[in-house]
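Records of this kind hold a single protein each, on a pair of labelled lines. Below, a sample record shows both lines together.
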Amino acid sequence: MQTMKNAMAVVQAHGSLNAANAQDFHLSLVEHIQCNQSVGLVVDMSQVESLDSAGLISLVSALKQARQRSKRFYLCAVPPTIRIIFELTQLDRVFDMVEDISHTNPLAA
């Protein structure tokens, strides 16, 4: 699902982001990143129950594509059980993570 908030596309991720669905999830993210109507993408992680390496790779790849297009990329409302994965892999230093969408700034560099 995509909605617009301050010209940011918002994608609601849910359930498990794993090898079974990572490619489809990645394609969805890329489609939203390539949309010329938004200045960036917010991935709402509040409904994500599990994340494996394939899901993580899809997020990293989407982040890379967003940066290549000079678009913002946020992870929003990452549950503590999922956030630990980002901390263990030190990807919490790479991704912009916010508690809620109101903390995203589409005009930030």
